[in-house]
Amino acid sequence: MTRIRLAPRIVALPGTLYWLAAAWLAPGTLHAQEAQPSSWRRTVDASGSLLYGAASQRVLNGQFSVSSETSRRQLRGDVQSGYGDAIDQVSGERRVIVRNTRGTFGLDLTPRARISPFAFGLVETSLQQRLASRVSAGAGSKWTVWRPDSIRGGFQEDGSISLAVLGEETRGLRVNAASPASGTGTRYRWSMRARYRTRIGPSLRFSHLTLYQPTLDRAARYTMESTTTLSVPVRTALELTFTHRERLDSEAIDRGAPSNRDGQILFGMRATF
């Protein structure tokens, strides 16, 4: 009698079983991938201020940032939001005095070079500056004046100045539906920025940024922002922060804001992972 041998059947594994089999057959590859350090850095900030006694007021701010840097490019983005209220001394009711949201993104090419081109964008809304929306995007070049060869304590120290041109579209909050808001429309601006970051002693970190953005045709029509931060590490990835932030918009009063200036002093914490 002739014995007939049946060829074994090849059964296609589902996608999940296929990847499990690949992981079992080549564990060294997965371990090598896990060992590679990630270039992504994430930061969460939470801060606030509180007044009590003759005036009762509270302000809360939160920010989430993400960035990735290589020798060829740097990507960064953040979302920031703030809320504040105060007790009306006449009615005794709380009213909202601060409500803003801002998102930014940026792309730097060859960020570790002395001169590097970059592009950026911004979307924001602000109750205190009477902004229904502001959208802008631009491009320019950064000159790094000073940067140490080594990074001390995981904190990048540097000093730089930059020049850019941007386009902006602004919509103001209307007083009523019938009257159009002033201080709105399309603007084309210069963008000049100076930034300095350094360590003061073994445990204090200092950073300052000033941003001045006048329109191309009128230097008196501008926005300006200044942010100064002192931080003290309390753990490897946790810091206490003290921040003074001031923003000026020469057209805020035209849109119905009580002042062209919007300043805050905040105390908070920052976590990096």
Task: Quickly describe the structure.
With 273 residues, the chain is mainly beta.
| CATH architecture type | Beta Barrel
Shape: globular
* Helix share bin: under 10%
CATH class: Mainly Beta
For the report, how would you describe the main beta sheet?
Answer: 12 strands, antiparallel, barrel
- Outline the low-pLDDT stretches: 1-35
Question: What is the domain tally?
Answer: 1
Q: Which fold name is given in CATH as the topology?
A: Porin
The share of residues in extended strands comes to over 45%
Mean pLDDT: 86
Key structural traits:
single chain, 273 residues, mainly beta, Porin, twelve-stranded antiparallel beta barrel, 2 helices, 7% helix, 60% strand, globular, disordered N terminus
General description of the model:
By secondary structure, the protein is mostly beta strands. The chain has one domain (39-272): monomeric porin ompg (Porin, Beta Barrel), CATH 2.40.160.40. Helices cover 7% and strands 60% of the residues. The protein has two helices and twelve strands. It has helices at 15-25, 27-35, and strands at 40-51, 57-69, 73-87, 94-109, 115-126, 131-146, 158-172, 185-200, 204-214, 222-235, 238-249, 261-272. It has a twelve-stranded antiparallel barrel with strand order 1-2-3-4-5-6-7-8-9-10-11-12. The longest helix is centred in the N-terminal third of the chain and has 11 residues, at 15-25. The chain is globular and about 60 Å long. The termini are far apart. The model is unreliable at 1-35 (pLDDT under 50).
Tell me the layout of helices and strands.
Blueprint: H1 15-25, H2 27-35, E1 40-51, E2 57-69, E3 73-87, E4 94-109, E5 115-126, E6 131-146, E7 158-172, E8 185-200, E9 204-214, E10 222-235, E11 238-249, E12 261-272
